[in-house]
């Protein structure tokens, strides 16, 4: 059963996001022990895994999340999500219509990226459990990221979506999270703030205190 509290510290990463001296398994283990509330497997880019290797890694990471009762979400790859019985999927504006895969993926968590009011007006939110809004700030984690929309976009969209959970994404770190919490986001999605943290436990706990 999905709860907006699961968005408080939403960790996103794939192998392409991990520093050379670490593995994705090590980073996820630390993040889970530190208290992340949701994990999204986002394996994208020229160095990312594909095929059976990607599937086996996803299975291993999902098992780690299960031990901590943390939902395991797959980014974009609906077939992979179905194959490994993931807890949910997250899709962007360029992916197929939400209703097309919602029929295939019943009783699962569905997240949708909504960057601004134009995208909101073009989106079918009837099958969506939460929206990811951003980028909040300039980010280096996504090569195709749009221009930053800032925390005020959360406030704007809140007027339209009501109680639908909103998680902020893009360029978020320990120094700029406060305006996001003040804008009444339900949580933050982060990549490099955790993967490149020198103290993951401290970073995760810092984020969580804004949403408890």
From TrEMBL:
2-[(2R,5Z)-2-carboxy-4-methylthiazol-5(2H)-ylidene]ethyl phosphate binds at residues 139-141, 171, 191-192. Pathway: Cofactor biosynthesis; thiamine diphosphate biosynthesis; thiamine phosphate from 4-amino-2-methyl-5-diphosphomethylpyrimidine and 4-methyl-5-(2-phosphoethyl)-thiazole: step 1/1. 4-amino-2-methyl-5-(diphosphooxymethyl)pyrimidine binds at residues 40-44, 75, 113, 142. It comes from Staphylococcus capitis. Binds 1 Mg(2+) ion per subunit. It catalyses: 2-(2-carboxy-4-methylthiazol-5-yl)ethyl phosphate + 4-amino-2-methyl-5-(diphosphooxymethyl)pyrimidine + 2 H(+) = thiamine phosphate + CO2 + diphosphate; 4-methyl-5-(2-phosphooxyethyl)-thiazole + 4-amino-2-methyl-5-(diphosphooxymethyl)pyrimidine + H(+) = thiamine phosphate + diphosphate; 2-[(2R,5Z)-2-carboxy-4-methylthiazol-5(2H)-ylidene]ethyl phosphate + 4-amino-2-methyl-5-(diphosphooxymethyl)pyrimidine + 2 H(+) = thiamine phosphate + CO2 + diphosphate. Residues 9-194 form the Thiamine phosphate synthase/TenI domain. This is Thiamine-phosphate synthase. Keywords: Magnesium, Metal-binding, Thiamine biosynthesis, Transferase. PANTHER family: THIAMINE-PHOSPHATE PYROPHOSPHORYLASE, THIAMINE-PHOSPHATE SYNTHASE. Belongs to the thiamine-phosphate synthase family. GO terms for molecular function: magnesium ion binding; thiamine-phosphate diphosphorylase activity.
């Amino acid at each position: 059963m999905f709860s907006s509290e699961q968005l408080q510290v939403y960790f996103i990463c794939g192998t392409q996001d991990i520093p050379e001296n670490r593995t994705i398994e090590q980073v996820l283990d630390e993040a889970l022990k530190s208290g992340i509330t949701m994990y999204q497997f986002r394996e994208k880019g020229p160095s990312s895994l594909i095929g059976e290797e990607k599937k086996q890694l996803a299975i291993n990471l999902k098992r780690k999340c299960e031990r901590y009762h943390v939902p395991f979400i797959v980014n974009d790859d609906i077939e992979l999500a179905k194959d490994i019985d993931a807890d949910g999927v997250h899709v962007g504006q360029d992916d197929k219509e939400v209703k097309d895969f919602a029929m295939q993926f019943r009783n699962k968590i569905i997240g949708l990226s909504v960057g601004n009011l134009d995208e909101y007006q073009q989106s079918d939110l009837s099958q969506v459990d939460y929206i990811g809004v951003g980028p909040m700030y300039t980010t280096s984690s996504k090569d195709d990221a749009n221009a930053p929309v800032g925390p005020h976009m959360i406030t704007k969209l809140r007027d339209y979506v009501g109680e639908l959970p909103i998680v902020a994404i893009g360029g978020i770190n320990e120094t700029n999270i406060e305006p996001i919490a003040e804008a009444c986001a339900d949580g933050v999605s982060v990549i490099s703030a955790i993967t490149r943290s020198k103290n993951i436990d401290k970073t995760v706990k810092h984020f969580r205190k804004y949403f408890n």
